[in-house]
Design a protein that fits this description.
about 30% strand, about 35% helix, elongated, 2 domains, Helix Hairpins, alpha+beta, Immunoglobulin-like
């Protein structure tokens, strides 16, 4: 699977270029109509009220564009929500006012922090990471802007999803669902490490 960032960047590019193409076509049609059918002396207005073939053709094109966008969007989202990759790194995320708890099942590692002390957890670059996300109080949202990905944390429900982080370094994450007075300080960091550095990080946090 490609990185989460690349997956959603491709969907965004598709929306962007289709949007640009549609805007150009609409503006061109309006400009053509304004110039070609403008009022002129001695010219009577057309009495034609329908263009059935043209209207059907436009409707078919619109339906095809909508179908393509819906398919690509849901296909990409389903791939991230799969959470079935063999050998994936598994992390449980518990959101609370106003902090985060990251637990690595079977590894004996837990990272916890709040609005006063931002937590930082680690993932290996280029490997699938399966998250199980929930909340212990109100609705939060785990957002990693650099990965173009966001998922709600809902009390009493566990949302499962996969991510794959590309280049190494630190990603900034935050809560993007207003959850109280210190919502803006509910942040976290993600260290994207090589396999060797990731194993050393785990050992240091046991």
């Amino acid at each position: 699977m490609a990185s989460t960032r690349n997956d959603f960047a491709s969907v965004w590019s598709l929306y962007l270029w289709i949007g640009i193409a549609v805007a150009v076509l609409v503006l061109a049609a309006v400009l053509f109509a304004v110039v070609r059918y403008r009022a002129r002396p001695g010219r009577a207005p057309s009495r034609r009220a329908e263009a059935n073939l043209l209207e059907v053709g436009v409707a078919i094109v619109i339906l095809a564009i909508v179908a393509l966008l819906v398919f690509r969007t849901f296909h990409t989202e389903a791939k991230e929500d799969d959470s079935s990759a063999a050998g994936a790194v598994r992390i449980r995320v518990d959101a609370f006012q106003w902090g985060w708890k990251f637990t690595y099942p079977g590894q004996g590692v837990t990272v916890i922090g709040n609005s006063d002390r931002e937590p930082n957890f680690a993932v290996p670059a280029g490997r699938t990471v399966s998250f199980a996300l929930t909340s212990s109080d109100v609705i939060h949202a785990m957002w990693i802007p650099g990965q173009k990905f966001k998922k709600d944390a809902i009390p009493g429900r566990v949302n499962h999803f996969d991510m794959e982080f590309g280049g190494r370094g630190r990603e900034q994450g935050l809560c993007s669902e207003f959850c109280g007075l210190r919502h803006s300080n509910m942040r976290f960091g993600v260290w994207v490490l090589s396999d060797a550095s990731y194993e050393r990080w785990l050992a240091a946090h046991r």
